[in-house]
Write a structure and sequence with these properties.
The chain is α/β, with parallel strands linked by helices. The chain has 3 domains: 162 residues, no CATH class; 79 residues, no CATH class; 221 residues, Nucleotidyltransferase, domain 5. The strands form 4 sheets. Strands 1-2-5-6-7-8 form a 6-stranded mixed sheet. A 6-stranded mixed sheet has the order 14-13-10-11-12-16, sandwiched between helices. β6, α5 and β7 form a beta-alpha-beta unit. The radius of gyration is 27 Å and the shape is globular.
């Protein structure tokens, strides 16, 4: 067992440490004694900025609010106590409380006439989640231990039915909903108090360092210690097992199983995917179910290998857009005719204006010739479908796109293709590399989700030059085109169209949704 010396200066327990304990006791111990600086992804950074924007927006609805100042949490806590005692302030922003080795800060705190307090937590989600309630229960516990009475607890969150009217101004009354969660928080307070005491004790117990990795390492967010912990993992760790539930994972951990090679294929309760996964890693070869080839050949030419690129933002920007509604900004298509000819086409928009009308019109024009769509994930068509209501003038174009039959390649391969290097969650790039040996382009400026988000953010900035925006649009289109090319390569290889592939490769490429197709039922073991 590894040992660690305890921290010389005792840290107070806060929201971050409590969340770490809920995720993994090993993470809790390491975060307490050996915290590491997290590499924030572009998506998390944007979410953080959006959260700050939404917080300021929500605070604007509370009159006579005062920001609690203080360079340290102790100074802020002292200032909070003074303002509450004075009784002249209606709302406090960023109020701080310290008690029993714990510290919390509230988004918005409202003082009632009798001196009791209402807690308001601002969230960017569109519904009240369990972890919101746990966070609020922790706040209520510390506030009451600091000598105050909590009167009510509320969550302010985004109304998913809100339709933006355009521009950058938002009305808190229309965008934000309020939920009274006082009773729900009261019910879980005893359990949260017990967890808090247990977590505080756990920081003094280094036995947590022997805990194995698991699905909790990446849920709800990736653990900052995962890169180091994964060095001790076997080649096929248990957390990469498909269809793995927390209950089954806990059961296997109790049996001392952390390596898929330890699992028996005949073990009861294993799903079809799990059995096939064990077979492919033990046989060290790809297993392809017969229906995969059949499905890939049961197509309608021309085939449009289509990549639809979208981004999702909490706060809508364009007319009729709703919170968290996906926004399409690019598409790329490799169209294959029955004779083997391939044409390339695409569209990308990089500016502050609404990309949706031109996106819909350009893609509809490309698909007007008929044929079938081959997509990595058909959920992208739901993004197109969501345009019907806000883009009344473009409904005909949108219906042209949705009228095309389609095949969801990810769903097909997850149910019928098993490869030793494709465990757990599969992406298009990882699948193309494992099956076709294709590496995703990394030499260009836009090559993954984070770089896409950075590019879109930069393009929407007013000060960005026109020439820079043109380059960003070209990079976004190139990124989408690489995704479409991977789809075509996968189809050719898995449908055994080698001759067609060779013929198409010899010819230079020319530059230039519909009812969901049902897959065959998952095979059942004899």
């Amino acid at each position: 067992m590894k040992t660690r010396s305890t921290t010389k200066v005792q840290r107070r327990f806060d929201k971050r440490l409590f969340e770490a304990g809920q995720q993994c006791l090993k993470r809790l111990y390491l975060d307490y004694h050996e915290p590491v600086e997290e590499q924030e992804s572009e998506g998390r950074r944007i979410m953080s900025e959006t959260g700050k924007q939404l917080l300021q927006l929500a605070r604007g609805a509370f009159a006579r609010g005062v920001e609690v100042e203080g360079k340290t949490i102790d100074q802020a806590a002292d200032k909070t106590q003074q303002l509450i005692a004075a009784g002249s302030v209606f709302a406090l922003f960023g109020a701080a409380f310290v008690a029993d080795g714990c510290e919390v800060r509230t988004d918005i705190l409202v003082r009632q006439k009798d001196g009791s307090l209402d807690i308001f937590e601002v969230k960017s989600g569109t519904k009240v989640k369990g972890r919101y309630l746990t966070d609020l229960a922790l706040q209520a516990i510390v506030i009451e231990r600091a000598g105050h009475k909590v009167h009510g607890v509320y969550v302010l969150y985004l109304d998913k039915t809100y339709k933006h009217t355009g521009g950058t101004d938002y009305s808190p009354k229309g965008l934000v909903k309020s939920a009274d969660v006082t009773e729900r928080v009261r019910r879980i307070q005893p359990r949260v108090a017990e967890q808090l005491a247990a977590f505080q004790r756990q920081t003094k117990d280094d036995s947590a360092l022997d805990l194995p990795t698991g699905t909790f390492c990446t849920a709800p967010f990736p653990c900052p210690h995962l890169a180091n912990c994964s060095k001790q993992e076997p080649e096929f760790p248990l957390r990469s097992f498909p269809d793995l539930t927390r209950e089954i994972e806990r059961e296997l951990h109790e049996e001392g199983i952390a390596d898929l090679m330890q699992l028996d294929e005949a073990r009861p309760s294993l799903t079809f995917r799990q059995r096939r996964t064990l077979q492919c890693i033990k046989q060290k070869e790809t297993i392809r179910e017969p229906f995969v080839k059949e499905e890939l050949l049961h197509v309608e030419f021309p085939l449009h290998f289509l990549s639809i690129a979208t981004t999702t933002e909490a706060l809508p920007r364009f007319v009729g857009q709703k919170p968290w509604q996906a926004l399409p900004y690019a598409w790329a298509c490799e169209t294959l005719t029955a004779g083997g000819a391939v044409t390339q086409s695409g569209f990308a928009y990089a500016d502050k204006d609404d990309p949706r009308p031109e996106f819909a019109q350009s893609l509809a024009k490309q698909l007007a010739s008929g044929g079938m769509l081959i997509l990595w994930n058909a959920d992208s068509l739901e993004c197109v479908r969501s345009l019907l209501e806000p883009l009344a003038a473009d409904k005909q174009a949108i219906r042209v796109i949705l009228a095309r039959p389609h095949l969801d390649l990810q769903r097909l391969l997850e149910s019928g293709l098993f490869h030793p290097n494709l465990l757990g969650e599969r992406g298009l790039a990882a699948t193309a590399k494992a099956i076709c040996g294709i590496d995703a382009p990394t030499e260009q400026d836009v090559f993954d989700e984070d770089s896409v988000l950075r590019a879109i953010q930069k393009a929407s900035t007013p000060r960005t030059r026109a020439a820079t925006k043109e380059k960003i649009a070209a990079d976004l289109r190139s990124y989408a085109q690489s995704q479409a090319a991977m789809l075509l390569a996968l189809w050719r290889l898995l449908s055994d169209k080698q001759e067609a592939a060779a013929e198409a490769a010899a010819k230079p490429a020319k530059k230039t949704a519909g009812p969901r197709k049902q897959l065959p039922p998952t095979p059942v073991e004899d």
